[in-house]
Amino acid sequence: MSKVAIVTGGARGIGAAISKLAAARGYAVCVNYQSNASAAEEVVGEITAQGGRAIGIQADVSKADDVSRLFTESARALGEVTALVNNAGITGRISRLDETDPETMQQTIDINVMGVMLCSREAVLRMSGKHGGAGGGIVSISSGAATLGSPGEFVWYAASKGAVDSFTLGLSKEVTGEGIRVNAVSPGLTETELHASGGEPGRVARLESVVPIGRAATPDEVAQAALWLLSEEASYVSGAILRCAGGR
Ligand code: NAP
After folding, report:
1. Rounded to whole angstroms, how far apart are CA atoms 124 and 40?
2. Ligand 1 site, CB within 6 A
3. Pocket test for ligand 1, best of 19, 33, 161 (most atoms within 8 A of CB)
4. pLDDT score of 13
5. Does 97 score more than 90 pLDDT?
6. Which atom of ligand 1 is nearest to the CA of 11?
7. What does the pLDDT look like over 54-78, one tens digit per residue?
8. Could you give the percent of the chain with pLDDT greater than 70?
9. How far apart are CA 130 and CA 62, in angstroms?
């Protein structure tokens, strides 16, 4: 059976590393993006230049209609999905809760929690043996923030990732017997544009010293964990929250 991965937010940061590593491991890759079409074109171009198959598809993971279209268009172009990586996520602007507007919190929950649930629902409908599917894997990119709480930075984001962890545990129990292993990776501090998007480009430099390993992760180090969970080497792993946080 051919391997097809949908990577949400797959054009930048950790998602781009996952898209490229998935292609190197033999997946045809649907590189989802929200607004950065040129980043998606670049990742798709790199994959196809290496002889792989990839397509970029715009969709906002927090919108049910977009998610449904994402899976339909991906299946039409690449074949039915066998692996979903729920990677798309935002923090909102770094600040205390009482300095944060409700819209930021709502948007974070919509993308980080509803996005994961909507995409996973669509994947289950297509991969579960109960629905005539051939099985597959789901990996969500959570965060060490789920257990750190992130005070003074983004407690609403930490809460959204706590929800991702609970969802991963529950869904794994629901569908592992139907041929879908469901897991999460919890990265710690990782070198991407996420910190600048949150308003603090120097966040990695500020926090590196509190990470036991003494540095931030590269996106590729997180991608390796995600691809391992999807691989046959992890054939008995479901419901795991794999911390990839340099000891933090
Ligand atoms: P990033 O570099 O800021 O990239 C975020 C990606 O998410 C972008 O590709 C963006 O698409 C996409 N995205 C945002 N909203 C979306 C939406 N509504 N629909 C579809 N795609 C959307 O972030 P990153 O650091 O790689 O983060 C990836 C994941 O890792 C996130 O879930 C994040 O919470 C988690 N994480 C990151 C760190 C870290 O230190 N960096 C640590 C722990 C966990 P566009 O390119 O179109 O904007």
Report:
1. 25
2. 8-9, 11-15, 32-36, 39, 60-62, 87-90, 111, 141, 143, 187, 189-190, 192-194, 197
3. 33
4. 98
5. yes
6. 9
7. 999 999 999 999 999 999 999 999 9
8. 100
9. 26
Question: What's the pLDDT at 45?
Answer: 98
CA separation for the pair 150, 140 (Å, rounded): 19
pLDDT score for 189: 98
The reported pTM is 0.98
- Domains in the chain and their CATH numbers? 4-244 (3.40.50.720)
Mean pLDDT for all residues in the chain:
98
Q: Which of 208-219 are b and which e, b meaning 16 or more Cβ less than 10 Å from the residue's Cβ?
A: eeebeeeebbeb
- Ligand 1 atom at shortest distance from the alpha carbon of 157: 34
* Pure H helices in the chain: 13-24, 37-49, 64-78, 102-109, 115-127, 145-148, 155-175, 194-197, 203-207, 219-230
CB of 185 closer than 8 Å to CB of 222? yes
pLDDT at 117: 99
Mean pLDDT of 150-171: 98
In the sheet with 54-58, reading across from the earlier edge strand, the strands are: 54-58, 28-33, 4-7, 83-86, 136-141, 180-187, 241-244
Structure tokens at 210: 């509190």
Is residue 1 pLDDT above 80, yes or no? Answer: no
For a substitution probing ligand 1, which of 20, 21, 31, 87 has the most ligand atoms within 8 Å of its CB?
A: 87
Residue 157 appears among annotated catalytic residues = yes
Atom of ligand 1 lying closest to residue 34 CA? 47
